[in-house]
Amino acid sequence: MINFLKIVFSALLVFMCYKVITTSLESNLFEQWDFLGSIPWMRATLWDFYANIFIITLWMFYKEKSIILKISITILFVCLGSIATLAYVLVYLFKLKPGEGVKELLSKR
């Protein structure tokens, strides 16, 4: 299961980096912000994003000990979204020892 998660999360990380980079080259978010903000589905998507970030941040606060690390990772989550989230989870997936599973991934160390 852990190897499967490593593969899936790695593939998603590469895909999200690709999508963000190619979209950034095509379109400037800051120039289109007023238009995007006027679309109800865009506003709903942002609320959905921040609700997910809140949940993931709570889990990260549970796992991490250092307040500096907690604040830094929270900033990365908010600024980079799924790219930071995927990278964070991948770090923990690759830190797992042989024989450890999802229980150890989710639990506090």
UniProtKB/TrEMBL annotation:
InterPro entries, per database record: DUF1475
Transmembrane segments: 46-62, 74-94
A Pfam family of this chain: DUF1475
Origin superkingdom: Bacteria
Keyword vocabulary terms for this entry: Membrane, Transmembrane, Transmembrane helix
Signal peptide coordinates: none
Name of the protein described by the UniProt record: DUF1475 domain-containing protein
Record organism: Pedobacter ginsengiterrae
